[in-house]
Write a structure and sequence with these properties.
By secondary structure, the protein is α+β, with helices and mostly antiparallel strands. 33% of the residues lie in helices and 25% in strands. The chain has one domain. The chain contains 4 helices and 5 strands. A 5-stranded antiparallel beta sheet has the order 4-3-2-1-5. Helix 2 (62-74) runs antiparallel to helix 3. It starts with a strand and ends in a 10-residue tail after the last helix.
């Protein structure tokens, strides 16, 4: 088990969600919910993971997440939502490996 990294994910259809990266398959990242990651960490219960394209995974930014949530769920403003996603920084696995992202978890 490696140390996970919290990230912002552009789910379908463009809704913002927060997940933990626990593995890298090359083109995709394996992500899971925070509470499932902590169960894995504390009790050894493997989390349910989802394979997510790297192009939909961004560095976590609390302020941006709040704005994305408001645009997506409160305002339902697709134009604003797209503009905000344009400000998100794609998560760079190579740059962030030093932060403890584990390799290929299946």
């Amino acid at each position: 088990m490696g140390i996970s990294k919290i990230v912002l994910v552009k789910s379908f259809p463009n809704q913002p969600i927060v997940r933990y990266i626990i593995g890298d398959s090359g083109e995709d990242l394996f992500i899971c919910l925070e509470h499932e990651y902590h169960l894995w960490e504390q009790k050894g219960i493997r989390p349910l993971t989802v394979k997510c394209p790297k192009t939909r995974v961004f560095e976590y930014d609390d302020e941006l997440f709040k704005k994305l949530k408001e645009a997506a769920y409160t305002l339902e403003d697709q134009g604003l939502l797209e503009a905000l996603w344009g400000k998100a920084r794609i998560y760079d696995v190579d740059r962030n490996l030093v932060n403890g992202v584990s390799s290929n978890v299946t």
